[in-house]
């Protein structure tokens, strides 16, 4: 990746997370829905049998949250701002 494409990607991430455009609103709405799913999952997890499907869903949620955290950290490349 060139420096220009990295800068463009960072701007795009910032727009998606904090913008008011239609794509940004959709992206933020999807994260809201995902957050609700995560809360429901963790509220019901103590009552669910711990089978393979449970572990797959648990690890998938963890991976998505890790990618989100990494994207936000990468987007904020300068922590002084």
Give a brief rundown of this model.
By secondary structure, the protein is an all-alpha fold. 78% of the residues lie in helices and 0% in strands.
Given helix and strand content, the structural type is mainly alpha
Which of globular, elongated, flat, extended, rod-shaped describes the shape? elongated
Number of E-state strands: 0
Tally of helical runs: 3
Distance between the termini: 24 Å
In sequence order, what are the helices and strands, one letter per element? HHH
- Structural Rg: 16 Å
What is the strand content? under 5%
Helix fraction, binned, reads over 70%
Describe what this molecule looks like in 3D.
- This protein is mostly helical and 81 residues long.
- 78% of the residues lie in helices and 0% in strands.
- The protein has three helices and no strands.
- Helix 1 packs across helix 2 and helix 1 packs across helix 3.
- The longest helix is centred in the last third of the chain and has 24 residues.
- The chain is elongated.
- The protein starts with a helix and ends in a 6-residue tail after the last helix.
Can you tag this structure with a few keywords?
0% strand, mainly alpha, 81 residues
């Amino acid at each position: 990746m060139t420096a220009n494409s990295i800068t463009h990607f960072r701007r795009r991430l910032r727009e998606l997370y904090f913008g008011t455009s239609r794509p940004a609103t959709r992206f933020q709405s999807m994260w809201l829905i995902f957050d609700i799913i995560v809360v429901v999952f963790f509220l019901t997890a103590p009552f669910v049998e711990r089978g393979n499907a449970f572990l797959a869903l648990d690890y998938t949620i963890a991976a998505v949250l890790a990618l989100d955290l990494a994207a936000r950290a990468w987007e904020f490349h300068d922590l002084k701002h």
